[in-house]
Design a protein that fits this description.
The protein folds into two domains: 2-183, Flavodoxin domain (Rossmann fold), CATH 3.40.50.360; 184-259, no CATH class. It has six helices and ten strands; from the N terminus they run βαβαββαβαβαββββα. It has helices at 16-26, 66-75, 92-98, 132-142, 165-177, 239-268; strands spanning 2-8, 32-38, 78-86, 89-90, 116-123, 146-154, 198-202, 205-208, 214-220, 223-229. α1 packs across α5. The longest helix is centred in the last third of the chain and has 30 residues, at 239-268. It is globular, with a radius of gyration of 21 Å. The chain binds flavin mononucleotide. Flavin mononucleotide is lined by residues 10, 12, 15-17, 84-88, 122-125, 128-130, 155-156, 158. Residues 10, 12, 15-17, 84-88, 122-125, 128-130, 155-156, 158 line the site of flavin mononucleotide.
């Protein structure tokens, strides 16, 4: 039986994210068992940027609940992730885990590579979703999963998304898509990764904010037609890209060692500037 992991990026019990994940799971035709993680239930410390997790055989030294999430992720066959818009982006619980996710690929093994996933942003107001969907897609891509579909559903009060029958239909479609081949990429989307959020660079050039590759666009019969090529920002388009990226990061750790003295001269020249506002735990002499 397939193991589907529902990752809830909302603190609300039986809120829209939770009921949506359960509704999608009800509509997955393949026999499966649904496990659930509410990220806010876990004590996840912020990444300290030490890069130790990039050194082979070095697990993250932060002592918190992340290993439980890592174990659940590595043993899942598929993922359904839903999170609400909080001030135009996904609830911070998702980003806290995302920042620590490089440590999931021990010894540069990408155990989640290509596992199917679905991501849904929930927003209380139409048009106020900001970059929430992009946040969730980034989470799923950086987790190295194969996003079968992603969407935005609207509803503010807990359960409100299903006061709208259309959303039930969408949930049914999402559920049936999870273990099917990904649909062909159509419309004004990045042909490399399926992303639909872009930065306009001038001269008809644009960059995909999901895979970071860039290209051009033109208008044909009133519709934008995009042509995006691999442009040296390949993190997750193939397993080889992911290995290359991991090697680059490891190289940066080596480069830091090589340039440590020079870098210290630069940073130390700023050491004494400014008055620090400190949290109570860091105040000395009291
Ligand atoms: C602190 C906070 C910030 C929010 N910011 C937004 C927002 O920027 N845009 C939006 O459409 N909805 C916003 N909402 C509404 C939630 O996205 C909405 O209520 C959603 O249904 C919550 O999902 P949940 O039930 O899974 O928690 C916000 C809610 C809270 C509590």
């Amino acid at each position: 039986m397939k193991k589907v992991l529902g990752i809830i990026g909302s603190p609300r019990k039986l809120g829209n994210s939770e009921v949506l994940i359960k509704e999608i799971s009800r509509n997955v035709p393949e026999p499966h068992e649904l496990s659930l993680i509410r990220l806010n239930d876990f004590n996840i410390l912020p990444c300290k940027g030490c890069y130790m997790c990039l050194v082979t055989g070095n697990p993250c030294h932060l002592d918190d609940d992340l290993p439980v999430i890592k174990e659940a992720v590595l043993s899942a066959d598929a993922f359904i992730v839903a999170a609400p818009a909080y001030l135009l982006g996904a609830n911070a619980s998702l980003k806290r885990v995302l920042d620590r996710i490089m440590g999931f690929n021990e010894n540069k093994e990408f155990k989640q590579w290509g596992k199917p996933s679905i991501g849904i942003a929930i927003a209380g107001m139409k048009g106020k979703e900001g970059y929430t969907k992009l946040n969730i897609e980034s989470f799923l891509k950086i987790l190295l999963t194969d996003i079968k579909r992603s969407d935005i559903l609207y509803g503010a009060l807990p359960g409100e998304i299903f006061m709208n029958e259309e959303n039930k239909k969408t949930a049914a479609e999402l559920g049936s898509a999870l273990f099917k081949p990904a649909p062909e990429i159509t419309g004004p989307r990045c042909l490399l990764c399926g992303g639909d959020t872009f930065r306009f660079l001038g001269d008809n050039r644009l960059q995909c904010m999901l895979c970071s590759n860039s290209g051009t666009f033109s208008m044909e019969k009133g519709e934008p037609v995009l042509s995006i090529q691999k442009s040296g920002h390949d993190i997750f388009l193939s397993e080889g890209d992911s290995t290359q990226h991991a090697n680059w990061l490891t190289g940066m750790k080596g480069s830091f060692k090589d340039h440590k003295k020079k870098l210290k001269v630069i940073t130390q020249s700023y050491a004494e500037e400014g008055l620090w506002v400190l949290p109570p735990s860091k105040k000395t002499g009291e």
